[in-house]
Design brief:
The chain is mainly alpha-helical and 271 residues long. Helix content is 48%, strand content 7%. The protein has a domain of 136 residues. The protein contains eleven helices and four strands; from the N terminus they run H-H-H-H-H-E-E-H-H-H-E-H-H-E-H.
Length: 271
């Protein structure tokens, strides 16, 4: 709903804060954390969320005004929560982007981390470049999705076609018009005002939101933030329900989460 929350752009510090809980969750999964935050995904997640709220946002806002002692403490805590080297965090001026995380978390193992499904990894090039050539999270499911689509069309719908099935069509994405009304140029596309207005206008409208803890494309914490910014009274926002799953962007690719999603959706519909 709010592209400002996920696009790493100059003078936009919001994503650095909103991605950190997701980074912590992924780092814990891959065994890159130690101490209390390594005990469980929940422990890592909660520690990162508390750090963002209590310290990190203020540090980003301070910029060069941040005291040296405070900066040192921020660097140490970021390293503890992300599994990244303190030197790298210093080099990036306390700002770790998704691209940096994908290539640096498991660099010592020669692996890159998936974007839409960060539990999945893929081998780096022998030259250890930082070129984003493919998303191992998508590669793991693209072929099964294509096969399933063809099987459904031919066996269930009776559509006999040899046309190429585009699971992810980048050409179509490039045609999208991101402008909203009077918003032009460097603005971030945002549909939160539309949802806020719809919720206020229609007392029967209810919304269910599903987020994966290992999704680094649209992180759960960025969605938390967007929902918290909806411009509607508290009683109206009770009609918005947010569920979380221990998987990536497509949580239904993990059977346990697919079943949980079905239960959550059935309960929501029954209400």
């Amino acid at each position: 709903m709010d592209l400002q929350s996920i696009l790493f752009a100059p003078r936009n510090d919001l994503p650095y804060a909103l991605f950190l809980p997701g980074f912590a969750c992924v780092a814990q999964y891959h065994g890159k954390l130690s101490g209390n935050v390594a005990e469980s995904p929940d422990a890592a997640r909660k520690a990162a969320e508390a750090f963002v709220a209590d310290d990190y946002l203020a540090a980003l806002h301070a910029g060069a005004r941040l005291a040296k002692a405070t900066r040192r403490r921020i660097v140490e805590r970021m390293a503890q929560l992300t599994g990244l080297a303190e030197a790298l965090i210093e080099e990036k001026n306390l700002r770790i982007s998704d691209h940096t995380f994908f290539f640096e978390l498991l660099r010592d193992r020669g692996l890159i981390v998936g974007r839409l499904e960060a539990r999945v990894t893929g081998p780096m090039a022998a030259s250890r470049t930082r070129d984003w050539e493919f998303d191992p999270g998508i590669e793991a499911i693209a072929a099964p999705y294509t096969m399933a689509a063809h099987a459904y069309m031919s066996e269930c719908l009776g559509v006999d076609t040899q046309a190429r099935y585009e699971v992810l069509c980048m050409d179509a994405h490039k045609q999208w018009n991101w402008n909203r009304g009077e918003q032009k140029g460097n603005g971030f596309a945002c549909t939160s005002p539309d949802l806020s207005r719809a919720l206020r206008r229609n007392p029967h409208l209810r919304v269910i939101v599903a987020s994966g803890h290992y999704d680094l494309g649209t992180p759960f914490s960025a969605t938390d933030w967007s929902l918290a910014q909806l411009d509607a009274p508290a009683e109206v926002l009770t009609r918005v329900t947010h569920h979380y799953y221990d998987a990536g962007h497509m949580m239904y690719t993990r059977e346990a989460d697919m079943r949980k999603l079905k239960r959550d959706l059935a309960t929501w519909l029954a209400a």
